[in-house]
Amino acid sequence: MTDRLTAAEEQIAHLSRIVDELSEIIARQEDEIGRLRRRVAQLIEREAEREADAGGQISLSDQRPPHW
Q1: Predicted pLDDT of residue 61
Q2: Which of 38, 51, 63, 65 is the most buried (most CB within 10 A)?
């Protein structure tokens, strides 16, 4: 009985450690995703400004694909 209890306690401790590690990983990924979203927004804005400065042509993002 004590062997089963010890094994269960070890498994709980192991799972608790894994949950903590996964929580840290998720927090880091959330930060990275936020940074990447901001960077993409900056790049989109920069590209829109570049296209506007290039002569006011229709933005590639606003054009219909050739297969339409």
Answers
A1: 64
A2: 51
